[in-house]
Amino acid sequence: MVNNAAVAIRGLHVRRGSTTVFDGLDLDLSAQAVTGLLGPSGGGKTTLMRSIVGVQKSDAGTVTVLGEAAGSRALRRRVAYDTQEASVYDDVTVAQNLRYFARALGLARAEVDRVIDQVGLRPQAGQLIGSLSGGQRGRVSLATAMLGKPDLLVLDEPTVGLDPVLRESLWQVFRALAADGATLLISSHVMDEALRCDEVVLVHAGRVLAQTTPQGLLTRTGAADPDSAFLQLIEEDESAHPHRRRAEREEGRG
Asked: Which of 104, 103, 95, 99 is nearest to 125 (CA)?
């Protein structure tokens, strides 16, 4: 168990339809750190994040977030969730969108200016969101999640589809948030993002294959890059548990 865990998951069981996503998952996430949640699509990353923010129904187990049960009223302003689909209104400007959410949270207008500047959207502040590029819309959604300086930000593939320059600028934002005391859980299927994190959690077919540092991942596998390391861990897991692979095929997961 991590002594300063921001998130503690014990015995989590989740089924979606006829598919078992998690079957007794245990996981701790360190506080005030950037944790990368990595793995291929369909491996359980989004279900795990939804469980942490309290919007995923579970069949058994506990999820404790910042000392409270996931989804508790006490966490509403302390936890922010940025989904893959940008949570914005197309027919208003960037600033208007953020002011709307800031008012709902009872925040001062200065908070809107802070997050606009932090995500680098000052030049677009007066533009309609419907006129923005996909990457810009994603940054508006991220800015919305950053309102009020939440203690935990859960970000579902926030850099997907971005060019290298924009990805770099967002990672500078993530590092600044962590340096300011926030905990970040960032999902991605791009393995080289692991090298930007303090810790990585590798998920495949509803199982945690590894929880380690980026360097620890490479050292453990002897691989030259995160892609090779992850593929090696998958091969080792499937060789050690061939019955799991058969079950996944029968459930339609494989």
From this structure: 95
